Protein: FAD/FMN-containing dehydrogenase
Amino acid sequence: MAPLLAGTEKLMLTGRLRDDDATKAKAGMDFGGIVDRRPAAVVEPCDADDIAEIVRFATDRGIRVSARGRGHSTHGQSLVDGGIVIDMSALAAVHRVELGYAVVDAGATWRTVLEATLPRGLTPPVLTDFLDLSVGGTLSLGGIGGTSHRYGAQTDNVIALEVVTGAGERLTCSRASNAELFRAVLAGLGQCAIVTQATVALVPAPTHVRRRIVAYPDAVSLNAAQRTLVEDRRCDYVEGLIVQDGQGGWLHNLEAVSFAADADVVVGDGVVLETMTMSYFDFVNRLGDEETFLSGLMHKVQPRPWCTVYVPGDDVDAVVDASLARPQSEVGSLGMFLVYPIPRSALSTPLLRVPDDETMFQFSVFRYAEPADAAAVKSMLAANRDMYAQAQAVGGTLYPFASVVLDRDGWEAHWGNQWEMLRSAKTVYDPKGVLGSGQGIF
Ligand SMILES: Cc1cc2nc3c(=O)[nH]c(=O)nc-3n(C[C@H](O)[C@H](O)[C@H](O)COP(=O)(O)OP(=O)(O)OC[C@H]3O[C@@H](n4cnc5c(N)ncnc54)[C@H](O)[C@@H]3O)c2cc1C
Structure:
């Protein structure tokens, strides 16, 4: 046992504490494959009491703790060097599904949630493009998807939370009770508490959807078309994908979906490449599960220095064009971009930092470097910094699962007028500063 963890034999855990090399190596890496931070141990909790016990143990000794959902951040956000990782995938049950809500463990994936709600004809209103992300992980970030133009972020659709604070205290919170804690946890990057359970809103699920893929000549017309679709409320789901054409250029494709299976989305002057009816589950699961996603699209290639920014609608064309004009080697041969609009009014989570513009766009880049190509990783990380700087220069913000490192000033700028709120909540709920060190904020 590492000296740091002397005394763990006295812990009253129902779950397991593991410190074998294989477990620590796995918990030391994330989806990005860039940062390696080995923990001293990994805890697989059986329940929230286990989490409270381990957090109190760590707080007493000044050991840092990190909740790991599915480890799908890209730059070490869920990792902790020499500390304790809490593997939230061990707490992954769906406890109740009622007409308008479900009570789920934070380590459950959105796939698990959906599998429990769909037989009742219900769905979370916003799903991430990839379903195998944890509820706690995306609620710590925001959780944005193709229905966000209508329903906001996943964090906007949370009714209540059960958490363990950095002081090891088990608390519940909602808009009406412990509201300050609720605000500090949603999109709060795990700084004040570990979410153990969430009550998330549900809406009726369509059985089938009508999906169209529509081509546009450039990013400007793609963005204009998406904006019109959203403003006119002409579709239920919208995302724009910019992919390589194999000849050094780009294809600009709109994915516009109606949740009424017999109603095609009217898309204006784009060229319709494909129209299909599919089941709602097949649609939201179109990237497949972890294994299909990684092998099917050859996404096994790591490192993956991904980046997402939010850009004011008036400036999105310039920011997107600046990225598209750069060498394709900066995204790698599998690389692509995602861009889609979200009205500001749909979002209400204070710590989800987005521009103030009435319509803003999410803009993501998925970069893939060859494993041994350190120079490529360096240039991709530099490209991410430039992308964020360009967004920031026009009032844009960062989605902090990205491979972009911020210093203290950078974080303060990121949180803007919410910085004092987060800082003061941190003092109250995680006074010893043991939680969320992978983000490098405090
Ligand atoms: C393939 C892929 C597709 C994606 N698609 C989308 C998308 O469509 N929309 C979108 O918004 N994002 C998307 N993301 C980004 C995603 O939201 C983040 O990577 C998120 O962090 C992943 O969740 P996770 O469970 O893996 O969290 P982790 O990476 O494990 O954790 C993320 C952060 O949250 C903290 N955390 C984790 N669990 C808890 C908890 N229970 N309580 C408190 N803090 C916790 C961690 O310590 C860490 O700081 C995607 C990422 C990938 C890799």
